[in-house]
Design brief:
It is built from 10 helices and 5 strands; from the N terminus they run βαβαβαβαβαααααα. Helix 2 (37-47) packs parallel to helix 3 (63-71), helix 6 (130-139) packs parallel to helix 10 and helix 8 (175-182) crosses helix 9. It has helices at residues 12-23, 37-47, 63-71, 91-99, 111-122, 130-139, 160-170, 175-182, 186-200, 205-214, and strands at residues 3-8, 28-34, 51-55, 80-85, 103-106. It has 223 residues and is an alpha/beta fold. Helices cover 48% and strands 13% of the residues. It has a 5-stranded parallel beta sheet, with helices on both faces. This is Response regulator transcription factor. Pfam families: GerE, Response_reg. Residues 4-122 form the Response regulatory domain. It comes from Streptomyces macrolidinus. Residues 151-216 form the HTH luxR-type domain.
Length: 223
């Protein structure tokens, strides 16, 4: 079945360009468009897309708040959000990731990267390499908790090994690198990552990295 995509951007020309690129792919179908966050919420409810290609800076409701309402607690729909931005180190990207986005893509990315990004996010994977997430979080650490806040109760649900794995995910290591670091198999690492996501109620590795920073488990700039 084709991946159902909703395009959300306040610039009609950009939406037209994205539509032309995506509709050339047999496995992708553009099911609708929206010019701001409020329209996006209505379209998501009606069209039930698999992936929302979301601009950040829009009138009436920006992409961060729209992302929060589409993917936030209590939302069990299929839609995943891929954020579009003009800047690769935009503080709004951090907010969008915290709100539930599965990754971000630069607006000037080549067409094949846009297509691949849609497929990756639709498959339930995080588009961002955790190392990129870490670079974002380190840069905008001022927007994150000071580290003096109490440790969230949810962190105590993890085993010692799961905490180790979470730290390594936040440091930007791949499953293979984590496996080598902990002297276990990649399959074991995948199992641990799955348990971490389930116990903490997180969607993907990107949200896991954000959680590790917000909980104080990982400090900005730490190795």
């Amino acid at each position: 079945m084709a991946i159902r995509v909703l395009l959300v951007d306040d610039q009609p020309l950009l939406r037209t360009g994205f539509r032309m690129i995506l509709e050339a792919e047999q496995d992708i179908a553009v099911v609708g468009e929206a010019g701001d966050g409020l329209q996006a919420l209505d379209q998501v409810r009606v069209l039930q897309p698999d992936v929302v290609l979301m601009d950040i800076r829009m009138p009436r409701m920006d992409g961060v708040e729209a992302t929060r309402q589409i993917t936030g607690p209590g939302r069990d729909g299929p839609a995943k959000v891929l954020v579009l931005t003009t800047f690769d180190l935009d503080e709004y990207v951090v907010e969008a990731l915290r709100a539930g986005a599965s990754g971000f893509l630069l607006k000037d990315a080549p067409a094949h990267e846009l297509v691949q990004a849609i497929r990756v996010v639709a498959a339930g994977e995080a588009l961002l390499a955790p190392s990129i997430t870490r670079r974002l979080l380190d840069k905008f650490a001022v927007h994150l908790p000071s580290g003096e806040e109490p440790v969230p109760d949810t962190l105590h649900t993890l085993t010692e090994r799961e905490v180790e794995v979470l730290k390594l995910v936040a440091r930007g290591l791949s499953n293979a690198e984590i496996a080598a670091d902990l002297f276990v198999s990649e399959t074991t690492v995948k199992t641990h990552v799955g348990h971490v996501l389930t116990k903490l109620g997180l969607r993907d590795r990107v949200q896991a990295a954000v959680y590790a920073y917000e909980s104080g488990l990982v400090r900005p700039g730490a190795q």
